[in-house]
């Protein structure tokens, strides 16, 4: 049974009713992390930024998930503000990482070497999951903004 301080009447509150609703952020963030780590990028600074974004957002989302599941927020509205700031930061970071990864993938697409083709396929998967992670963070941020507005 859900506690009374988390009403389920609004769809905006549903994303914070149970910590498992945050789990999709870890899944897609982890997939981006794994795919970028396994791919070989000729521009180290690009791969470094994408890895930083993936690891940072994964750790940040996991920390928030643990804090919410432990009940550390106590129903305080300042936690909603913290959640909005974290989700906005993650969405912007993932958007920048996805665009950089897509640019590199596009620049590699003109080469015909079989080894490059494997790298190209891994990078395509990383780009797709990076954009999906960006979309999920934006959706989560909108739900958090609706929750913040209602509190």
From TrEMBL:
GO process terms (BP): myelination
TM stretches of this protein: 20-37, 49-68, 80-104, 124-146
Membrane topology: Multi-pass membrane protein
Compartments, as annotated in UniProt: Membrane
The keyword Transmembrane is assigned to this record: yes
Cellular component, GO, one term: membrane
Keywords tagged on the record: Lipoprotein, Membrane, Transmembrane, Transmembrane helix
Pfam families membership: MARVEL
Listed GO MF terms: structural constituent of myelin sheath
Boundaries of every MARVEL domain copy: 13-149
Family per similarity comment: Belongs to the MAL family.
Name of the protein this chain belongs to: Myelin and lymphocyte protein
């Amino acid at each position: 049974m859900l506690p009374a301080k988390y009403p389920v009447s609004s769809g905006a509150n549903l994303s914070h009713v149970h910590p498992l609703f945050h789990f999709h952020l870890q899944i897609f963030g982890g997939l981006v992390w794994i795919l970028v780590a396994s791919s070989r990028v000729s521009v180290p600074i690009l791969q470094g930024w994408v890895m930083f974004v993936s690891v940072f957002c994964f750790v940040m989302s996991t920390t928030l998930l643990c804090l919410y599941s432990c009940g550390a927020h106590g129903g305080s509205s300042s936690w909603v503000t913290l959640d909005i700031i974290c989700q906005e930061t993650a969405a912007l970071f993932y958007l920048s990482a996805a665009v950089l990864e897509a640019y590199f993938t596009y620049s590699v697409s003109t080469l015909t070497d079989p080894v490059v083709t494997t790298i190209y396929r891994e990078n395509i998967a990383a780009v797709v999951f990076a954009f999906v992670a960006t979309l999920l963070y934006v959706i989560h941020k909108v739900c958090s903004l609706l929750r913040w507005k209602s509190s």
